[in-house]
Amino acid sequence: MNGVHDMGGTHGHGPIAPEDEKHEPLWHAPWEARMLGITRGMTYPKGFNIDRFRHIRELMPPALYLARSYYDHWYAVCVAALLNGGLATREEIKSGHAAPGSARRNDAARGDQVWQSQKTQGIFTRELTTPPLFAIGQRVRARNINPTGHTRLPRYVRGKLGVVRIHHGGHVFPDTNAHMQGEAPQHLYTVAFSMRELWGADASARDETCVDLWESYLEPA
Amino acid sequence: MNSIHDLGGMHGFGAIEAERDEPPFHEPWEGRAGGILEVMTFPAGFTVDRFRYLRETLRPDLYLTQTYYEQWIYIAEQVLLESGMISPEELARGKARPPKRTDAMRAAAVWSFLHDRTHSGRDLDQKPRFAIGQRVLARSMQPAGHTRLPRYARGKIGSIVSHHGAHVLPDASAHGRGDMPQHLYSVRFAARALWGENAHPRDSVHLDLWESYLEPA
Amino acid sequence: MSQHSHDHDLAHHHDIHAELPSDPALRVKALESLLTEKGLVDPAAIDAWIEIYESKIGPRNGAKVVAKAWVDPAYKQRLLSDGSKAIGELDFLGRQGQHIVAVENTPEVHNLVVCTLCSCYPLSVLGLPPAWYKSAPYRSRAVIDPRGVLKEFGLELPEHVKIRVWDSTAEVRYLVLPERPAGTEHLSEEQLAALVTRDSMIGVGKVSAK
Fold first, then answer.
1. SS (H, E, C) C48-96
2. Catalytic-labelled residue, pool C33, C81, C118, C135
3. What is the nearest CA distance from B153 to chain C, expressed in angstroms?
4. Which residues have C-beta within 8 Å of that of residue C145, sequence separation ≥ 6?
5. B159: which of A46, A50, B97, B124 is 20 to 30 A away, CA to CA?
6. Does the pLDDT at position A123 exceed 90?
7. Are C205 and C197 a contacting pair, CB within 8 Å?
8. Is B84:B60 a contact under the CB 8 Å cutoff?
9. Of C1, C134, C171, which is closest to B145 when you measure between CB atoms?
10. Chain B from 87 to 126: CB within 8 A of any C CB
């Protein structure tokens, strides 16, 4: 979706103002650490996946997306996932307590399981039987598509001409996976676009931006 | 500038929520804000283009949450501060320091002010570069300052529908560089050229674009 | 103008807001009194401006233009070939309405007006724009999903109709000339004007005979 999250090339957000890496704490407040832990350890609705997580984040009201801090976004996603999945009610979220008499599950991930899942989960490569459509060095054009659902084709790349640099094999396709429509893996490529192609004649003649794009985002140039 | 105001083509803002029989002002303060920004004394050389640019500098989340006339207050504050017509201390404390001017627009002058015939058209010796019907490419450009070429049209091909004559160029006027008039054209872009093959085959979007925004296609 | 200097200005702008009340009513009051004290505004002029837009400049202007075009084919021709001149005949030109192009709806073509970049609107013929016209939902969707937008306003167009969206990027202002509804042949120009809605002149609605 063409949401406010799709920020590539936008202006107006102010200076980056990084904290010195020697001094920036892992957490700016204890709740951030708790939020990370909750996100990693909580029980999600059946079939939930990382692409769905990202899409739900993109559905935050745009002003909130811009105003709230990072781990606060994770809070928003977790709350939305719980409500949407019927795992909690609005009253429960607001009060911070389970409704009296409501059922209590006993299948939450334990500490050691959370650690294990860090090592085994998060693998998105899949075997494909169809050969890749594009070859290394081939010129391709990113398609001009404007899906209202989840996509990983940023607006600033659409319609632009690039060159395939790397072929990553088959990967879970976010545009379907985010909507619980299956993994539908596709060949994934790294495509290089010159800065001038992306931003116009005033941009650097030398530099480029590389973007990982699924096969259905591309057409031969 | 590629800021949040450049909203064309974005998703995620929800329903339009049109109010029936909406009054011109929802609160008295909105009328006061509207009136201030129209009839107050502006710095010499202030233009409608600078007005629009200043609004674009509003912090993006505030741009999306502050109501329309609330944003006009921000613009007034910026105009007054950047021109030095008001000091930060005066604004913060809400108390004026002398001297007091005596040349503010009077009530009796407001009607003719609103019917004033000054406009953005200018004479230009240079001939228009593009002809009616000609295919043109809206340039890919990313100015950090004010422009009226929305992102959704950049790099897209359209055709010239009409020529409006020469007009003040907002990209210059908003930044104190004078009128710098250029030929202005109405350009039609097929919906499919803008949004891809899922767009309606017969729909189009027309934009008024200055000559420097365009190249022959 | 460098991105760096621009960002520096932004930080400076935002400083002041820590010291100002957040309630807009309070801020406007303080601003008006400060400007009055400095002689930078005359409050009676503000009163006059409000009064003009509350009761004198509004969509009834545009409705008169539309009704005249419906009853007078020669005027309609003039309106479509030079909107500013024709609207000027009725003395409806003015601020944010100096250079007006009238765009005609037909059974094959439907026009819709938006300003994606801010809120440009033909004030002199339609008065002040409604909040929805200036909102992010309308500004973002009108150019990419005009049919969805019209549906939200209760208007569904047949498939064969071509939609033209006009994004008001310059000082040219657009006024939609809606189709005259059937069954109005017997009505006077004044009665016809009373039927013309503001929404039909933006393009989010059609005029009906009742």
1. HHHHHHHHCCCHHHHHHHHHHHHHCHHHHHHHHHCHHHHHHHCCCCECC
2. C118
3. 10
4. none
5. B124
6. no
7. yes
8. no
9. C1
10. 88, 90-92, 94-96, 100-111, 113-121
* Kind of pairing between the strands at B204-210 and C162-167: parallel
What's the whole-number average pLDDT of chain C? 88
Angle (deg, nearest 10), helices C24-37 and B68-83? 40
* CA distances in angstroms from C81 to A177, B123, C76, C104, listed in the order given: 53, 21, 9, 11
Q: Is C84 a catalytic residue?
A: no
B65 touches chain A (CB under 8 A): yes
pLDDT digits (tens, 9 = 90+) for A27-80: 888 888 888 888 888 889 998 999 999 999 999 999 999 998 888 899 999 999
- Amino acid letter, residue A158: R
**CA–CA gap between residue B159 and residue B154 (Å, rounded):** 14
Task: Using an 8 Å CB-CB cutoff, list chain C residues near B87.
Answer: none
Active-site residue identified among C2, C5, C55, C115? C115
- Element holding A190 (H helix, E strand): strand A186-194
d(Cα C189, Cα A221) in Å, to the nearest integer?
58
Q: Given B11, B14, B140, which is nearest A2 (Cβ)?
A: B11
Chain B CB contacts of A158 below 8 Å: 196
Strand ranges (E), chain C: 99-104, 109-114, 162-167, 172-177
Q: How far is A89 from chain C (nearest CA, A)?
A: 28
Active site residue C119: yes
A203 contact residues in B (CB cutoff 8 A): 142
Structure-block tokens of residue A88: 């909690």
- ipTM of this predicted structure: 0.85
